[in-house]
Amino acid sequence: MDQLLSAIANFAIYFFSGLIALIIFKFCYALVTPQDEWKLIKEDRNIAASIGFGGGILGFAIALSGAISNSVSFVDFITWAVVALVAQTIAFAIVRFGFMPKIVERIQNEEISAGIMLGVVSVAVGMLNAASMTY
């Protein structure tokens, strides 16, 4: 019974910390993107923004799952979560400044293809992130 309670406590710690990390990611990602995703999604109902931002959140969640699965301690998990946040932010910068310099304008103009590309890159980076978090 003690093992079960310990396992449930560990689950709760990692699960709720992961949720908090997702919220932190949402705010950090919004700081580095020049457009206001929430306004574009909630008020303007911009599908391209929703796809791009959703891909960012999904990519980060994938990376977090790798961090949770492979961490050897809670501090280790937090460290990898920060690494994942930085990597996802860099992924946006690479798309914005490298592959698609007009991505911001294209998303604001509701170009779904731009949102899909940003979302896919974010998920791909999240998967690479998760796979790289091993010892």
Write a structural description.
The protein has one domain (2-132). The two termini are 31 Å apart. It has helices at 2-32, 37-43, 47-70, 74-99, 103-108, 112-132. Helix 1 runs antiparallel to helix 3 (47-70), helix 3 runs parallel beside helix 6 and helix 4 packs antiparallel against helix 6. It is elongated, with a radius of gyration of 16 Å. The protein is mainly α. The model has no long low-confidence stretch (mean pLDDT 92).
Shape designation: elongated
Major beta sheet summary:
none
- What value does the average pLDDT take? 92
Secondary-structure element pattern, one letter each: HHHHHH
Distance between the ends:
31 Å
What fraction strand?
under 5%
Helix- and strand-based class?
Answer: mainly alpha
Unreliable runs: none
Number of domains: 1
Number of DSSP helices? 6
Over the alpha carbons, how many angstroms does the gyration radius reach? 16 Å
Instruction: Assign a percent range to the helix content.
Output: over 70%
Q: Can you count the beta strands?
A: 0
